[in-house]
Design brief:
By secondary structure, the chain is an alpha/beta fold. It is built from ten helices and 15 strands. The mean pLDDT is about 95. It is an enzyme of class 1 (oxidoreductase).
């Protein structure tokens, strides 16, 4: 038997139940992973609340790290005993052990521990594709990154600095502003004290930024468009405040022929080659110490409701993980 989190209906943190299930052997193309740490991300909240639908009953969680205990027929990507990590579908990382498609698993470098791996896979791979593919940033660019003190945000602050990119971050408190600054943000705006659109225009001398990276959604979308320079790109990759409301395409023309994209990790990592290339990039900057993963909250798997409550209340900073 193994323990996992299951939801039978959508709703608040209370819908998550810790249950015992029988875990069978891995099927063809699968590997069984005994998990040592599990990542917590806002996308888990979206599935729990039904913003992102899934068949019910269902699981939650999209990243984890552990050891391969068994492999199914035809598996060549990993072997028994490998230390591995993953991010993405299938959903169900909130578990002590699980069977995973071996094609999704990546062997960890020796100097990356399980806690770090579980906290960095989804968030780190997200920053990798946002900065290298969604908009191919180059030294000298200036960007706006919302929620700069969150797990994705702190990785972004460091990676932007590594690339020679000026990052303007938004946060909700002075403590979070200090944290983002320590991690490499050049300018930090406390949106509870300042209008971020006005401040961005001041910082850039009225020019605007190359790109806005926005995981907040409804509350920040239009203001973010007003931060962009002509031909700039609005990257909407989350909905923490709710889905972006419908808007007229003329809004983009009126602001200087802007681009808007709604990327997803699954689309950018749709092939094994893409996944391995992105992971090599991420593992490289983490193993070298150029990007540090800041795990600031650890919860027992049984305490997942508290983890979600604190995440949704924006009481967390950096990365959060579950420990089976």
């Amino acid at each position: 038997m193994t323990k996992l989190i299951r939801i039978n209906r959508v709703g608040g943190p209370e819908v998550m139940e810790l249950v015992d299930v029988e875990l069978g052997p891995p099927g063809p193309g699968e590997a069984q992973v005994r998990q040592h740490a599990i990542g917590i991300n806002f996308i888990d909240v979206y599935f729990r609340t039904g913003l992102y639908p899934q068949p019910l009953p269902g699981g939650l969680g999209m990243e984890g790290a552990g050891v391969v205990e068994a492999i199914g027929e035809g598996v060549t990507e990993v072997k028994v005993g490998d230390r591995v990590a993953y991010a993405g579908r299938p959903i169900g990382a909130y578990a002590e052990a699980r069977n995973m498609p071996a094609s999704q698993l990546l062997v960890l470098p020796d100097n990356v521990d399980f806690d770090t791996a579980a906290a960095m896979m989804l968030q780190g791979l997200t920053v990798q594709y946002l900065f290298h593919r969604t908009v191919a940033l180059k030294a000298g660019d200036t960007i706006l990154f919302h929620a700069a003190a969150g797990g994705v945000g702190l990785i972004a602050c460091q990676w932007a600095k590594l690339l020679g990119v000026t990052l303007i971050g938004t946060v909700g408190s002075d403590e979070k502003a200090e944290l983002a600054t320590r991690n490499g943000a050049h300018h930090v705006i406390n949106y509870n004290k300042e209008n971020f659109t006005t401040r961005v225009r001041e910082i850039t001398g009225g020019k605007g930024v190359t790109a806005v990276y926005d995981s907040i959604g409804k509350d920040t979308f239009i203001g973010s468009l007003d931060c962009l320079r002509p031909l700039g790109t609005m990257v909407s990759f989350g909905n923490a405040s709710g889905p972006v409301e419908p808007f007229s395409l003329s809004e983009l023309a009126n602001r200087g022929s802007l681009f808007v994209t709604r990327p997803s990790l699954m689309a950018y990592m749709s092939t094994r080659a893409e996944l391995e290339t992105a992971a090599k990039s991420l593992f490289g900057v983490v193993a070298s110490g150029e990007v540090k993963i800041d795990v600031r909250q650890r919860y027992a798997l049984a305490d997942v409701a508290r983890a979600h409550t604190e995440l949704e209340a924006r009481q967390t900073t950096g990365s959060s993980i579950l420990l089976p």
